[in-house]
Amino acid sequence: HTVVGRDGMIYASSFVSNEVFSGIPDEKGSWRWRKVVGKTGGPDGPTGLALDGELKLYVASFGTDQIMRYDSVTGKFLDIFVNDDLEHMDCPEGILLTDDKLLVASFLNDKVLSYNLDGSFQEIFGAGWHLDGPQMMLEHPGNQELLVSSYHRDKIVALDERTGKKIREFGGKELSRPVGLAAAPGDQLLCSSHKSNEILRYNATSGQFIDVFAAGHGLWAPTGIALTTDLVQDPWTRSRSVPSCCEFTHRAENSHIVHAGLICGDLF
To answer: N or C: the chain end with fewer CB closer than 10 Å?
Structure first.
């Protein structure tokens, strides 16, 4: 999984090695990676990431059902933000930090959980068969919807941002094991199709499939997508240690070129 921080860095979790890296391009365009979270005393299978305004890094620990926090600058462990004493969480995947809560996609029990900003449990925000294997979440910028990728149903599910109730879903035969989601210019949505090794593009409002946004060139089993407004589209492919990069470019309808970072690799 990946996230772009307010510090301009891309943060990437490595599920297999139990590490989290941060990366930024140098003046020559080469990416420099730094280990933020190491193997010792860290998460068990890090997945979802979020960064707050104080540059505290939230990391979902898939194997221990916890959300951990780290200082993203020093890498120092801060605390276990959510310990799931109430046993609502079962293998967390994507996390989404909003102004008033932290949302967690609980993969094995098909729920989206909501926590207060002090780490206390708030509510089961969304649940049901329609979320089968929830992966990543995205607030739709144009309406009051929360988009959730349903891994086992090959669908993108839209929930009411206030109530958590299902509004609609989309995704056809072109979508195979969706994971990452990113909002692109022109009311477009990018979704990583994990099994078909592609990044697909949809109209975010209508749900209509537009085209294959990226494929090939080392793009393998894509998972998280992090999108900014920089100049180059960079899907990422993960090695056992440090991520490596293959580049794609795309000009959006408003003549701006989008930049994205993806961490690609086996889901488990």
So the answer is: C
What is the total residue count of the chain? 268
> Dihedral, CA atoms, 150, 156, 160, 163, nearest 10 degrees?
0
Which distant-in-sequence residues (6+ apart) come within 8 Å of 106 by Cβ?
A: 88, 89, 90, 91, 92, 93, 112, 113, 134
Interatomic CA distance for residues 261 and 248, integer angstroms:
10
Q: What is the pLDDT of residue 228?
A: 64
Six token digits for residue 23: 């990366």
Query: No. of H helices and E strands in the chain?
Result: 0, 24
Residue 62 CB burial class (10 angstroms; 0-12, 13-18, ≥19): buried
pLDDT for residue 54: 94
Strands 19-25 and 10-14: antiparallel
For the sheet containing 155-160, what is the strand order?
A: 134-139, 145-150, 155-160, 166-170
List the structure tokens of 176.
């195979």
pLDDT, averaged per 10 consecutive residues of the chain (268 residues), comes to: 86 93 85 87 92 96 97 94 95 96 98 98 97 96 89 98 96 97 91 96 96 89 78 37 42 34 36
How many whole angstroms separate alpha carbon 128 and alpha carbon 166?
A: 9
At 265 the pLDDT is: 36
Supply the pLDDT for residue 229.
57
pLDDT of residue 254: 33
Any idea what the Cα angle at residue 15 is, between residues 148 and 170, rounded to 5°? Answer: 20
Distance in angstroms (rounded) separating the CA atoms of residues 68 and 55? 14
